[in-house]
């Protein structure tokens, strides 16, 4: 598990089960920004989903906290369908009020640090195809797009082992 990182007034640490409501609220604010008609109600109980993610013994949720307030979250684990050397980033959200402040880059670096400590070689994620801001962020971090079937999401891959950092186009 990652040790706490403190940079200025910012702390990156493991999120706590008691923070499920704050995590859910941040998730809703961030996701609403890339849905033109607002955050869709697909029937998911997001408080329950985040409570489960926070309690999973085989996963981890990192958070960034500034001045006592949760401002970014990242949820990841090794999915059943992949080998042990691949981790999947299921959720990565920065509070819209903190975009372009460096918090996303700092949280991403903490994730990569944890993945390397856990001997992961590859990370994968699915990003909403219309979320140009997130796609540009991931490209700056070295994620590469895999061939797409033209669906609503794109699969991205990152070489965690420290190999080349080519940029996605």
What does this structure look like?
This protein is of the alpha+beta class and 169 residues long. Helix content is 28%, strand content 30%. Strand 7 and strand 8 form a beta hairpin. It is globular and about 35 Å long.
How are the secondary structure elements laid out?
Elements: E1 5-7, E2 10-14, H1 20-32, H2 46-55, E3 59-66, E4 69-77, E5 86-94, H3 103-117, E6 122-128, H4 132-140, E7 144-145, E8 153-159
Parallel strand pairs: 5-6
Antiparallel strand pairs: 1-2, 2-3, 3-4, 4-5, 6-8, 7-8
Helix pairs in contact: 1-2
Radius of gyration: 15 Å
In sequence order, what are the helices and strands, one letter per element? EEHHEEEHEHEE
Strand order of the largest sheet: 1-2-3-4-5-6-8-7
Topology, number of strands: 8
Oligomer: single chain
* Amino-to-carboxy terminus distance: 33 Å
Summarize the entry for a quick read.
The chain has 169 residues and is an alpha+beta fold.
Which descriptors apply to this entry?
alpha+beta; 4 helices; disordered C terminus
């Amino acid at each position: 598990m990652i040790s706490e990182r403190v940079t200025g007034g910012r702390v990156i640490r493991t999120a706590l089960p008691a923070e499920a409501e704050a995590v859910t609220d941040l998730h809703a604010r961030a996701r609403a920004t890339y849905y033109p008609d607002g955050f869709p109600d697909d029937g998911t109980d997001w408080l329950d989903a985040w409570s489960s993610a926070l309690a999973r013994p085989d996963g981890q949720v990192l958070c960034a906290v500034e001045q006592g307030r949760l401002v970014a979250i990242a949820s990841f684990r090794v999915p059943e369908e992949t080998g042990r050397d691949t981790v999947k980033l299921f959720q990565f959200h920065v509070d819209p009020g903190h975009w372009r402040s460096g918090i996303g880059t700092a949280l991403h670096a903490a994730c990569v640090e944890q993945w390397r400590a856990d001997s992961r070689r590859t990370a994968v994620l699915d990003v909403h195809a219309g979320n140009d801001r997130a796609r540009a962020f991931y490209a700056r971090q070295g994620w590469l797009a895999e061939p797409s079937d033209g669906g609503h999401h794109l699969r991205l891959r990152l070489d965690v082992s420290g190999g080349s950092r080519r940029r996605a186009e």
